[in-house]
Amino acid sequence: MPRTHRVVKIEWLRRGVQATSLVTFVVLMVMWPRMPIDWLPAQLFSRIDPLIGLAVVIAAQGLFAYAALGLITIVLTLATGRSWCGWLCPVGAVLDIVPGRKVRIPNKKAAWARFGKYATFGLVLGAAAFGTLSPMILDPITIAQRPLQELAMRAVGSDALGLSVGSYLSRDAIGIIAYLSVVPILIVVSLNMLG
Asked: Which pLDDT score is estimated for 20?
């Protein structure tokens, strides 16, 4: 089989896995409270997220079963390349669906843009070394989960809103925070469209 046909087949397979991953992520996050499935956790993607797994291990200075799943994803990525971002991550799927700019930014600016992701990675792991996971709000899975938790789950009758932001806030304040939860994913998509 010619190499170009293999590449096309692999690309179709990747797109299929991405679409399945994205749909699974949304269904698990939104519908899980109403689904009679005990063996499939709503937080499945958080558990296999390599950044969350690594940060939890560093912050806790120990290995937990759910963090180990993230470490397995790291090993898979080291062995196969960008399997997490390019195949499984729902944010990666969204970024592939939303069209980017046709003209690529110059190499000097591209290098600066790449530095941002490494700086974020360093910030998350550095904070974890000091025992805090606060910068995890920058993690792609967290960025995708929050709007689903705050808005979509409420639309299907779940009261996840109060649970995720804190019952000590008034319902009006919680509503404002819920709508603000969309801002990070919009920023990520916008930056993808620009670059």
From this structure: 92
pLDDT over 60 (residue 1): no
Chain-centroid distance, C-alpha 133: 15
**Identity of the residue numbered 146:** R
> Do 50 and 136 meet the contact criterion of CB atoms below 8 Å apart?
no
Half-sphere exposure at residue 5, Cβ-oriented, CA atoms within 13 angstroms: 2
Segment 10-23 shows an average pLDDT of: 89
Terminal-residue alpha carbon distance, the chain? 35
Q: How is residue 135 annotated by DSSP? A: G
**Mean pLDDT for the stretch of residues 26-40:** 70
For residue 51, give the nearest of 83, 80, 73, 26 by alpha carbon: 73
DSSP label of 36 = -
**Measuring CA to CA, which residue among 119, 94, 86 is closest to residue 23?**
94
| Sign of the alpha-carbon dihedral angle for 177, 160, 41, 11 | negative
Max Cα distance, the chain (Å): 62
pLDDT at residue 45 in the model: 86
162: confidence class by pLDDT, cuts 50, 70, 90: very low
3-class DSSP assignment, residue 38: coil
